[in-house]
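Pilot study result, target chain (292 residues):
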Amino acid sequence: MNKLPLAKRVQILAMLVEGSSMRSISRVVGVSINTVTKLLVEAGEACMAHHDETVRNVKAKRVQCDEIWSFCYSKQKNVEAAKRKDLAYGDVWTWTAIDADSKLIVSYMVGGRDSEYAMGLIDDLRQRFAGRVQLTTDGHKAYLEAVEGAFGSDVDYAMLVKLYGTAPEALRGRYSPAECIGARKERIEGDPDLKHISTSYVERQNLTMRMSMRRFTRLTNAFSKKVENHVHALALYFTFYNFCRIHKTLKVTPAMAAGVTDTLHDMEWIVGLIDARAPEPKPRGPYKKRSR
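Predicted structure:
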């Protein structure tokens, strides 16, 4: 079977999570773009399965949720009308939930920005905790029904609603929002601690995502062309971030800080996850000469 050497596979995966584009990786490593894409798909599938199985019974106390924008194929306004309703084109939102203490990405969801995907994120989040948590989100109204349906009264939930001023005339029509002039803390359910009502950690994580994945970079042509590869890149990044990357402040990985694992993993370990899912090679059959 034709298989890349371990060192090259490790190099490709490391470059993917450090912000290199897929075509630049193919040039640096000396492989085809199809090889990079195939390895990304295999890594994404392996990392999704590992995250779903491993990140369970998390003993978190404070959790923050947010969503980050990107696009696939083209900007929403440029997508043809026939494709506008298809999730595979236009705006794509990544929903994330982070443990404020260990910085562990507990759950994530890729899709639109409506209540359906908010419910998907919060329902998944509910199954991953070992006890009661304090949850903070922004003022997006889709969270209200989602949190109520998933947690009921078994949560201390608050919203941090940001207040924006009027955008200057020079910035109208650009992606930058108006200046934030304040924030209002709103208790929604339970008894949340006011001093811990914040979305700072999850918003900082959004910046880390933009810096670590080329397809999230603004104002470039490095956007995702297929939503499936977008999801695979996110799955690889979150597994690397949770289990392999030492947090500068914590001095350990987020997974170690959260008690999910006591081992520091590396890229060779992720390659091992890929190989563990690969089917066993079948014995070659007899050679049959083709008749002319």
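One observation from the pilot: The first helix runs from residue 6 to 16. A full batch analysis is planned for the follow-on phase.
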